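We emphasize that the prediction below concerns an isolated chain of 181 residues; any contacts that depend on oligomerization or on bound cofactors are therefore not represented. The input was used exactly as deposited, without trimming of termini.
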Amino acid sequence: MNSYNNEAINDAAEEAAAAVAQGLNTLLDRENEKPNGKGPVKTKVSTKVELDKEKSLKEGTKYFYGFSTNLLKLDLTPTEFKIIIHILETLKWGNVVAMTQKSIATKTNISPSVVNRNWKSLIEKNVLIADEDGSIYLNTNFFFIGLYAHMDAQRRKDFEKASGYNDNITHMHNSPGTQLP
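Result of the prediction step, given as a token string:
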């Protein structure tokens, strides 16, 4: 929506609020004229205008952002891609991978040894990033969920750990990110 429309909506809301306030004041003036022993009542009218925006996605639809600049440089196997898609299906803001290789193997019907081999490959390709505490993150310079500007402090910290870049991986965010070797 352009600024003209926002301005027009705000002006209309202010005019409506003023009309409501004037009407209430008239009623209250009449009420205040009655001898009931109470002091005058004043009005305060606030308005909140929310537009019912048309949404392009159905409610509850999961989606993610992906960066073709970096993805095109990867030589992903079909199994690696399937693992990534499964991770994206359960991923939360901040890109913390909160699942085990065993659970991935079970849910994707891929043998645990094949998941392990591909997991290591995804770490070598910096698609998955392990921090000093052993937490695993899906690199936000390939895929991510949630917008950095809308994240709380902890999720921003996780997002920055997950935003690994180097000479081969372009840093795609305004967040500080993490320089990889």
